[in-house]
Amino acid sequence: MSDTQNSQNNQATTSQAASAGQTTTIVVSNSSNGLISVLITLFFGPLGAFFCWWLLAKKNVFKSLLWALLYTVLLIISAGLCAVIVGFVLLPVVWIVLIVHVYKSCSAQSTVIGEIRRS
Are 100 and 34 in contact (CB under 8 A)? Predict the structure, then answer.
């Protein structure tokens, strides 16, 4: 089949589905979820990571809160170790690990934004 025949068949199928009262679901892809979660975590830190795990990665609230508290404690310890020079290396490492963890969790999940019903 040629490309024009494929596109004509796709248009016919779409018009038939629209006339039958079908719903169209709008979904954010996995990579978009990962990028959004990285930006939120960069701007809001562990608090943003909590909401990303909870709302984008669809983990339960308790597990998301535990991860956020763990990373908050690690960042506080790393900031305290800045007095001993070790923290200047450890603080960016913990921050990068936090961002990678959030990205991996959220990019494994796609999010449904809404549905459009056609009559």
Answer: no
Q: What is the CA angle 109-99-46, rounded to 5?
A: 95
Q: Say how many C-beta atoms besides its own lie within 10 A of residue 119's C-beta.
A: 7
pLDDT along the chain (119 residues), means of 10: 42 46 71 86 94 88 95 96 93 95 85 72
Residue pair 29/110 in contact (Cβ under 8 Å)? The answer is yes
DSSP assignment of 37-48:
HHHHHHHHHHHH
Domains contained in the chain, number: 1
In contact, 23 and 118? CB cutoff 8 Å: yes
Count the Cβ atoms, other than its own, within 10 Å of residue 9.
Answer: 11
Q: Could you tell me whether strands 111-117 and 23-28 are parallel, antiparallel, or unpaired per DSSP bridges?
A: antiparallel
Asked, for residue 52, whether it belongs to a domain, the answer is: yes
How many other CB atoms are there within 10 angstroms of residue 55's CB atom?
15
* 13 located within any domain: no
Q: Is 70 domain-assigned?
A: yes
